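Suppose you are handed only these lines of text.
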Amino acid sequence: MNEYDSDRMAKLLEKTYGLKLVETPEEASVLILNTCSVREKAQEKVFGELGRWKEWKDAAPDRLVAVGGCVASQEGETIRKRAKIVDVIFGPQTLHRLPAMMEQALKERAEYDEQREVHKRVRRKAVIDISFPEIEKFDNLPAPESNGVSAFVSVMEGCSKYCTFCVVPYTRGEEFSRPFADCMAEIEALAAQGVREVNLLGQNVNAYQGVMPDGEIADLAVLIHAVAAVEGIDRIRFTTSHPMEMTQSLIDCYAEVPELVSHLHLPIQSGSDRILALMKRNHMAIEYKAIIRKIRKIRPELSLSGDFIIGFPGETCDDFKETLALVEELKYDRSFSFIYSQRPGTPAASLPDDVDLDKKKRRLNALQALLNDQTQAISDAMIGSTQRILVERLSRQNFNEMAGRTENNRVVNFDGSPDLIGQFVDVEITGAGVNSLKGILVATPEADRFKQRQYYAL
Ligand code: SAM
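From them, the structure of the protein bound to S-adenosylmethionine can be written out as follows.
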């Protein structure tokens, strides 16, 4: 979501002020830090980075520094207190106001310089707007432009689940869905620019409830069906989901919508019912397993990924073993696992953070070793299979090769020509590294269909 937001900021500043992205800070006149506060480590990095920018700012005082995202939303004024170089502080829901805020900051700086000549002790404040004006943001951002064959589309934001560990409802606000027609217009525009794959985004994307032009509400299943009908869009992903929002109609999409990939990112956080209750996830492990079983009945090849939190307050060795057992049973393919991080203002912050740090680290290592083994086993098992991949770009390792992604989101490098970019091709997998697969092109069904059409036209 932050990547998507950063992209929209860059486009917005290009449209309003003609600002262009540059390669190094030295070439820049504005630096923007788009932040995440989901864990303390990410938050602390913000202040480390701002400290490094001081020299850059001091070198030319007319340079601007802006801080956006969830740390900005959470800390507001405190950011300026800790980092005097910051001129603008905006939240995830006010990024569309960034050009006006930058202009205001420049104006205030000019006024400040004048006042300082008279009165030395005058203080300059940052321009701050971290409010939650919801839909206004989407209405005020420039139309999306594709950067390639695959695009993110933000369809909802925020979270109303209030898991006890999580800061998101307080920094991004409650769940808010974009109207159905707005999402569809964005996707149709992307398809017209050659996008073949969309990744529907939201903190709880499967809680999507978009108002339709007739006043009815579309859920994520309705949206997925509509997206699948858009000419040119042949692959649909959605991320990230909450288990409590995996409705039957969404599960049915795996049977009804071939464009929907056989991949699901469904965080569970812990395999222990006791910990799930303390986290206020509102479901038990068995219910989560039932969802996966239902989808695997429809798509036995489903590749599953998840998020796990290690060392939540009160997590015992037995609780952790239940997490390992769940992972053993369900077989995950690439996942995210984190040591619990106490977040200010969340209900869990009042619980004693009582699991010893060494224990947390040992548990995290054990879980990650298991998850990595499972991921590698899946990659190894793909060797010899034929995979349909969407060709995205030249390979980063060897410019004579092309790179594309499988349904389970693995990069495959293979010998091929750049004409294939934007096409679905079939590749036989010949090798599996840690980060990517190697393959041989075996069929180009779309290019063949195109040639056939030309032949009939003749
Ligand atoms: N829809 C997701 C869900 O079902 O929870 C929420 C995604 S959340 C923004 C991203 C991930 O960050 C969570 O799934 C969780 O594993 C991790 N996370 C959130 N708060 C955390 C905390 N306080 N400590 C450690 N990890 C945390």
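What can we learn from it? Residues 357-382 form the longest helix (26 residues). Residues 38-39, 163, 165-166, 168, 203-204, 240, 242, 267, 269, 307, 309, 338, 340-341, 343 surround S-adenosylmethionine (CB under 6 Å).
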